[in-house]
Amino acid sequence: MSRVLPKLGKYTSLVLAVVVVLLPLSVIVFASLKTAEEYATTGPLDPPSNWFNFSNYATAVDQADMVAGFLNTTVILAISLVFTILIGSMAAYAVDRFRFRGRTLIMGLFLVATLIPSVTSQVATFQIISQLGLYNTKGALVLLFAGTDIIAIYIFIQFMQSIPVSLDEAAKIDGANVWTIYWRIILPNLKPAVATVVIIKGIAIYNEFYLPWLYLKSEPMISTALFFFKGPYGSEWELIAAATVVVIVPTVIAFLFLQKWIYKGLVAGAVK
Asked: Of these four, 9, 135, 138, 179, which has the most CB atoms within 10 Å of its CB?
């Protein structure tokens, strides 16, 4: 009996977790396959009468211009990640490898910045973007997304501490400068950290709604496409559900292929 109860509790918790995760997704999938009339007259857990009714998906992709949204999101995502990796790894390199006055203060200011809600600084941020002439352009989002958060810097620092300093010293003896050491030694050894930051930051950018809705009104983004079917007099929930499934699929595929990097990166970064 003493062995049965722990196993029962373990499997019960797993079943509950699966239900909590899959139940909302099932409701969305069911709604995406229903017509407007069927959605209005059936419950959320009632399966659709026609499992091959994909008209909502075609309508959602066409009317919300989701293809253009995917392209815009991909461009902004790729450029932002490149800048995030470079800025974050350079900042971590400077903080970890060099000793200078104010180093502790800088790290403290990074931590303080994470405690300030981003919404409270949006007025000043909006004014800066407008003065730079970047409002309603992709450049505004690239500039805002490229800012490296403290989580990325700490991930790079934790991995960088596992790179022996003797490699830097040997490179200096061979005549390498600081930039060469960073580019030829540090950055190539940060591949697990880079993969972790790409996954975490990439998903955050992909799912971001507020910044694209505020700073890029003229061009669609995949995160703002769902809002197309929200009107002042009602919402087309079956179309919203179809668009939601389309948006979710790429993130699910990315997670299935990259989940080992997520777990290895976070665990390794926590203990090194």
From this structure: 138
